[in-house]
Amino acid sequence: MKHRIVVLGAGYTGAHAAGRLARRLHPHDVEITLVNAEPDFVERVRLHQLATGQTLRPRPLSEVYAGTGVTVREARVTGLDPDRRTVQLSDGELSYDTLVYALGSTAAGPEDGHHVASRPAALRLRDRLGELPAGGTVLVVGGGLTGIETVTEIAESRPDLRVSIATRGALGDWLSEKAQQHLRGALARLNITVHDDTDITGDGEIRADVTVRTGGFAVHPIAAATTLQVTATGQIEVDGTMRSVSHPDVYAVGDAGFAIGVNGKPLRMACGSGIPMAWQAADALAARLTGRKVPESPIPYYTQCISLGRHDGIIQPVTRDDRAKPSAITGGPAARIKELICAGAAWSIAHPTVLLPARRRRLTPAAAQASAQAPSSF
């Protein structure tokens, strides 16, 4: 019997993990199933663009993985039993030998509020912004990367609106001085009002026709409802190979996994750390199944990339533990670099067996025997 690998979620991390596993493992020995609630890969880092009326290129997963050996199953994950090694789906149940959990996160806060953490939410926000007349007010709550990109995108696309952003601290205070100065100049150019040191909870103190919350992310509650060892926030605790510390046949990548980076700091929820987590997990899993040395090294950071509308941006180099360096690239060159990075990430997912040469290795006899003794899928 083939070793059954199930990947839950086809965002950046799940999609990369499935493609990398397909390149590393021989199709005669493994069966890779990628489960996703939507038929397309969604570029989450562009959802603020979708919310302002821009069109994103469709990337059907059935086309992306055609001929790769990865089976795409369109279904919603409703439950998980890691002790029985089964996943409950909206259309049935699926058994696995190894699970890669990549269900990601959504916006923290009220479920009915506006945010850009999912495609349906971005589309709802797009419709609401379209209803606003000239002079309407929009407030973005949260001064992180998502908040900055969202507020500048809205202000640029709708200069007739009164747009503001509220943050608990000083906006962009983690950036270098050069980057902070450029950020403040860009916000002034776009007529964005900044409310520093403002803690908005509930309806808040600042009234607006539309409030968009970007103040944080919350993981899906499925893992926390199982026997998997998770953090207080519901993230699955993993070792340096992204393997669950409580269930060795489960790997967690992206926002769903709680991993330690360099200098002992937890990795933050970000595309820049999520994709390397997927690579690490796929390579470690493939190595264990094929009897090769398991790679393990802390995941570092390199840059923070911020778009400020379509023609402006900031590329902030950072230390390995995510502290801003004094230098920064700003303006049009930064916008073009950010676009290349986003386009490159999407291209690598759309071509899962092209980016790296395929070295499809056979499973060890022990791994193959363990798969043969496992219960059948139902």
Automatic annotation (TrEMBL):
Residues 4-282 form the FAD/NAD(P)-binding domain. Pfam families: Pyr_redox_2. Keywords: FAD, Flavoprotein, Oxidoreductase. Its cofactor is FAD. Belongs to the NADH dehydrogenase family. PANTHER family: 64 KDA MITOCHONDRIAL NADH DEHYDROGENASE (EUROFUNG), APOPTOSIS-INDUCING FACTOR 1. This is Oxidoreductase.
